[in-house]
Design the sequence.
């Protein structure tokens, strides 16, 4: 698969390009990068790789697929342009401004006969995969509650305005993780923190409670302006609990200059000090970290595009996440519980 990246900010540089490079059956053939700084970053990371001034130029050069990782307010139009050009698409999250707009993109992809997937890569985080293994083991019994916290001391990365905000940024990941772990959601209640620091009223923190069809309850929360840095997962069931304080191991590794292509056997495994604790009547035990690796998303995407396997995150699952995010925003504004 000949794939091009549209956008080379933090997303393109740290969360897409290294994993495309490591994936099977994909060749990175170009990047849409407009600023001199972005072009220089591409040349530094991938010497000789062509850069283009627009998606149209990249499409004209010839690609089978594109990854759209530009600012949120630009994504819908770019995803639609790529779909109508007949190429497969990986869209960064959130891939549309609302669930209704996401359905328009999904319908267009179906009509065009192309694969549209959403880059919910954090299903492949080490801590979430480890939690998933604990839940699947049955050792916690009936799952009552799962709590997820991801606080980042990173105000500069918060997108401002209606199309931005933390709920649609980190909230996309955390909500998707809970849907993946616990299944569909029936009710949503949310609280949002707001700031005018960026010139437009922007949500800068959230606490969302979801009631799942299974009867389990999950909460997800995050902040970027409170100078807190924490990642914690808690799961409570009829037979015990699991508590883990992990690290963003893959993102940290890439930012240190390491690459999944050069260390596939050890990539994405959290340090022992971040292993979670499983507590049951018989005692407590550390649970070793599973191996996280975002590379698998792109390998599976390439296979799905040629009809050889399931899609890693089909648009339909991205729509479910956006339905919860839409409900959470409405819940916070109207101070009500939203039934889906």
Sequence:
């Amino acid at each position: 698969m000949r794939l091009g990246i549209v956008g080379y900010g933090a997303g393109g540089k740290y969360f897409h390009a290294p994993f495309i490079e490591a994936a099977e059956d994909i060749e990175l053939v170009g990047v849409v990068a407009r600023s001199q700084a972005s072009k220089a970053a591409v040349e530094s990371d991938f010497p000789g790789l062509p850069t283009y001034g627009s998606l149209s130029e990249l499409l004209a050069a010839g690609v089978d697929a594109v990854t759209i990782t530009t600012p949120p307010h630009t994504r819908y139009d770019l995803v639609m342009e790529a779909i109508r050009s007949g190429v497969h698409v990986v869209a960064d999250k959130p891939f549309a401004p609302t669930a209704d707009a996401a359905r328009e993109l999904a319908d267009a992809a179906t009509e065009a006969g192309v694969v549209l997937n959403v880059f919910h890569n954090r299903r492949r985080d080490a801590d979430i995969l480890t939690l998933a293994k604990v839940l699947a083991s049955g050792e916690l019994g009936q799952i009552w509650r799962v709590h997820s916290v991801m606080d980042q001391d990173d105000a500069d990365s918060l997108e401002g305005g209606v199309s931005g905000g933390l709920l649609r940024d980190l909230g996309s990941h955390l909500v998707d993780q809970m849907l993946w772990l616990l299944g569909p959601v029936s009710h949503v209640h949310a609280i949002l923190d707001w700031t005018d620091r960026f010139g437009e009223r922007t949500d800068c923190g959230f606490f969302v409670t979801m009631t799942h069809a299974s009867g389990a309850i999950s909460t997800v929360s995050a902040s970027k302006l409170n100078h807190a840095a924490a990642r914690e997962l808690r799961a409570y069931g009829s037979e015990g609990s699991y508590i883990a304080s992990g690290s963003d191991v893959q993102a940290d590794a890439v930012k240190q200059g390491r690459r999944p292509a050069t260390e596939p056997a050890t990539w994405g495994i959290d340090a022992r000090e971040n292993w979670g604790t499983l507590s049951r009547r018989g005692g407590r035990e550390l649970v070793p970290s599973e191996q996280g690796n975002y590379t698998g998303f792109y390998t599976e995407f390439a296979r799905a595009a040629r009809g050889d396997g399931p899609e890693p995150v089909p648009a339909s699952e991205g729509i479910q996440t956006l339905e919860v995010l839409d409900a959470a925003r409405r819940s916070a504004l109207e101070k009500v519980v939203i039934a889906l």
Summary: Residues 315-334 form the longest helix (20 residues). The chain has ten helices and 15 strands. Residues 168 and 325 are 7 Å apart (CA to CA).
